[in-house]
């Protein structure tokens, strides 16, 4: 007989005919849409969106031995389902009970050559944390199976979904997607070498302000080493002031978002002002790359670009309405065209050059690879 959630009529147990066989996770407020489509797909199933008021969750029951086939159908047919979990065991939400149930599931599910991680999500108030469960259950599963812990890319993750006083031990019917995976190229180290030389954008005050903000946000998005606003002819003082203020506002706006959302330190791009020709003289001996449609397609010179990025700093010159004067080309290490037959709008050049550089360096084999974090404990906390 399955355990029952408080104030909820469907028992959370895979072995009970009326029990919860599948837990579907969605974006918040998409659970009713997903539930409607799941009901159309599986007419005989009991489908409950937002059980106990928990948004982003759908319970699917009444499937019995067909639960895995049903889970695979949901994964294949319902895009609103971000994660589809098959309930293997349901027990009281007590660490000892959870540990014993998880070990039983692991013995059926995990082989010594596999890697695993415990992913715990708690809903309700408990005397333990998700980390407590991850550590305790992870240690027990490792001992029982001989499998190794891999928090980033486990071949056999186990999910512990806790709803108040009931815990479901689940296996996934959907894969995991993570930002960083082994062998993905790492770009920040090389982007930090980039020193952008950006011409002042001229026009009416509102256009200058908007362009400055976009340029600032773009530079900060990629956390380049520096941004220098270049003057190659007389510019009205008001235009320069509006442009510089807007660039700083764009940088600060993006920077504040980054420090709130990134789990690492963030580089705030410094801004300088220089005269173009003195800038070129000052950076003599350093790599200088000019962006211009008359240059070589960037992927055709990827090996040369990789050589330039062995330097401590790579200077990249970007025009605005007017291109970089041809006389500067003679002092450039490379003149590159980012997209043949296309003249890129000023506010799109920084994102385009950053992405093109990363792609070219990756093709040249010049980027380091993500090797994964050092394994420390069998846990992945999520409250």
How is this structure best described in words?
The structure is a single chain. The chain is an alpha/beta fold and 383 residues long. The protein has 2 domains: 20-172, VC0802-like; 188-363, Alpha/beta knot. 35% of the residues lie in helices and 23% in strands. It has 11 helices and 16 strands. It has helices spanning 31-41, 67-77, 95-109, 130-145, 188-191, 205-221, 237-261, 276-282, 302-308, 326-329, 346-363; strands spanning 20-25, 46-49, 57-61, 83-92, 115-116, 118-123, 148-149, 158-163, 166-172, 194-199, 226-231, 271-275, 288-297, 314-318, 334-337, 380-382. The strands form 3 sheets. Strands 2-3-1-4-9-8-6-16 form an 8-stranded mixed β-sheet, with helices on one face. Helix 7 (237-261) links the parallel strand 11 (226-231) and strand 12. 39% of the residues are buried. The model is unreliable at 1-10, 13-18 and 375-383 (pLDDT under 50). It holds the Pfam family THUMP. This is THUMP domain-containing protein.
């Amino acid at each position: 007989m399955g355990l029952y959630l408080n104030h909820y009529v469907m028992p959370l147990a895979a072995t009970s005919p009326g029990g919860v066989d599948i837990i579907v996770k969605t974006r918040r407020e998409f659970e009713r849409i997903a539930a409607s489509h799941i009901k159309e797909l599986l007419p005989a199933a009991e489908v409950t969106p937002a059980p106990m008021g928990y948004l982003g969750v759908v319970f699917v029951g009444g499937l019995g031995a067909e639960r895995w086939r049903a889970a695979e159908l949901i994964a294949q047919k319902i895009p609103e389902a971000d994660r589809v979990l098959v309930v293997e065991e349901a027990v009281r939400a007590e660490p000892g009970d959870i540990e014993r149930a998880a070990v039983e599931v692991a013995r059926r599910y995990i082989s010594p050559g596999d890697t695993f991680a415990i992913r715990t999500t708690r809903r309700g108030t408990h005397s333990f944390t998700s980390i407590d469960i991850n550590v305790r259950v992870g240690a027990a599963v490792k001992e029982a199976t001989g499998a190794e812990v891999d928090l980033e890319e486990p071949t056999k993750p186990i999910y512990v979904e806790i709803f108040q006083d009931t815990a479901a031990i689940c296996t996934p019917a959907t894969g995991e997607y993570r930002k960083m995976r082994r062998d993905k190229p790492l770009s920040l180290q090389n982007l930090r070498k980039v020193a952008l030389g950006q011409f002042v954008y001229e026009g009416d005050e509102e256009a200058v302000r908007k362009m400055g903000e976009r340029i600032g946000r773009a530079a900060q998005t990629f956390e380049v080493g520096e941004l220098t606003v270049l003057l190659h002819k007389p510019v009205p003082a008001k235009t320069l002031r509006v442009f510089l203020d807007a660039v700083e506002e764009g940088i600060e706006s993006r920077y504040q978002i980054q420090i709130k959302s990134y789990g690492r330190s963030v580089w705030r791009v410094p801004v300088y002002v220089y005269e173009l020709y003195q800038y070129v003289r000052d950076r003599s001996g350093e790599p200088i790359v000019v962006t211009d449609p008359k240059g070589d397609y960037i992927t055709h010179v990827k090996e040369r670009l990789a050589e330039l990025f062995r330097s401590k700093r790579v200077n990249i010159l970007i025009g605005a309405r007017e291109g970089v004067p041809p006389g500067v080309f003679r002092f450039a290490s490379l003149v590159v065209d980012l997209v043949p037959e296309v003249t890129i709008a000023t506010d799109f050049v920084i994102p385009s050059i950053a992405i093109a550089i990363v792609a070219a360096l990756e093709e040249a084999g010049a980027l380091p690879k993500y090797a994964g974090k050092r394994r420390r404990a069998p846990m992945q906390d999520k409250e």
